[in-house]
Amino acid sequence: MKKIISISLISLLSLIIFASCNKKVKEENISNLNWEKIVEKAKGSELTLMMWSGDPFINAYMNNYVIPEVKNKFGIILNISEGQGSKIVQILMAEKEAGKNKSELDMMWINGETFYQLRQIDALFGPFLEKLPNSELIDFNNPFIKYDFQQPIDGMECPWGNVQLAIIYDSLKVTDPPETMEELESFVKNNSGVFTIPTEFTGMTLLKSMLIAIAGGQEELNGDFDETKYNKYSAKLWEYINRIKPYFWKEGKTFPPTLAQTHQMFASGELYFTFSNNDSEVDNKVLLGLFPNTSRSYVLKTGTIQNSHYMGIVKNSSNKAAAMVVCNFLISPEAQLKKMNPEVWGDGTILDINKLSDDYQNKFKNIPQRKYSLKRDSIQSKALMELAPEYMIRLYSDFRKYVIEK
């Protein structure tokens, strides 16, 4: 009897190990399935997307359009969880250290330094991009889409939108907005308390644009992170910021931690300026009634960063098929057209319009025009490529060290 039980236990254990290995193989081999099989596998899935949720227009686009559409079209229940950047990295790092083989996240909205950090800890599934039928429509001839903070995306993330940093101001209060760092210094010193820099992604993107200006142009900082160059030019940047900091909001003794707070202070008139990584955002904020209709946007003469944002899929997601289907929908002409409308979101498309059907080409050409933002073609010549991700990571820590805590 003991021998029979032992054999049974061994057989049972073998079956469990086999089932576990077989499941792992199936998970790993999902990229070998054709698209029809992937769509079929995705049906009935429930997955979690972690993304920044600080903008009401973006939230409405996701909640009122994307979530219902992927449920109706593909039977996928998409849940959205608030979080970005460091939070995503911390969650996936903690799961990795705990040895978890199933993540609480399935996909996430990322770019730049987060993409870099997630690849460092091997937390991304892929390459998967070429499996998406709509990936053939992406404008990969555009270097602002093809590269993410100068990193080839290698099919490990899916382009979702393309934007350029803009400075937003109230034209009723600022008749001649400063277009250079010298003009900004003069303005801030003559108009104390109405300017500041948020300490989050958008604020750091502004500082990165200034760093490029101080370095004399894009070419000086292109390529891999250069410690010597960073130290040289960032020292000049901190000297500049600290020189005008006493004239900032609250005398530069504190800085807004979020862009939403900066927007709110601009809307109330406490600040004369705010910022956006979306060059058309001022339009939807006026339409929303948050910003006064005297709000306008511009870019610095020396240029501002243009970049793309992406969707990534978690390596330990148990819903990879559903995540791929959602990604494919997000880059469909239908979803991109709706997203690009400034009355909906105003996010720039990553599609090559010339690859679309005549019907969709006409629809894209007839998107409502911006009323308060500069048109993209008028600022494209001032678009700066993103720097290597380490520059952004260092700006976050050094801004706190050399400016906030100084």
**Helix and strand run:** HHEHEHEHHEEEEHHHHHEHEEHHHHEH
Sheet with the most strands, sense and barrel status:
6 strands, mixed
What is the beta-strand fraction?
5-15%
CATH domain topology of the largest domain = D-Maltodextrin-Binding Protein, domain 2
CA radius of gyration is 24 Å
Q: From the coordinates shown, what is the CATH architecture of the largest domain?
A: 3-Layer(aba) Sandwich
The total of beta strands comes to 11
Average pLDDT, rounded to a whole number, is: 92
Brief synopsis:
The protein has 406 residues and is an alpha/beta fold. The protein has helices at residues 2-28, 35-42, 56-74, 85-97, 112-120, 143-146, 181-190, 201-214, 218-221, 227-244, 259-267, 281-288, 320-330, 333-340, 358-365, 376-379, 389-404; strands at 46-51, 77-82, 107-110, 147-148, 151-152, 158-164, 166-170, 273-276, 295-298, 304-313, 383-384.
What does this protein look like?
The protein is 47% helix and 13% strand. It is α/β, with parallel strands linked by helices. Strands 1, 2, 3, 6, 10 and 11 form a six-stranded mixed sheet that branches. Strands 8-7-9 form a three-stranded antiparallel sheet, with helices on both faces. Strand 1, helix 3 (56-74) and strand 2 form a beta-alpha-beta unit. It is globular and about 65 Å long. Residues 1-28 have low confidence and may be disordered.
Quickly list its features.
406 residues; alpha/beta; D-Maltodextrin-Binding Protein, domain 2; 2 domains; 6-stranded mixed beta sheet; 3-stranded antiparallel beta sheet; globular; disordered N terminus
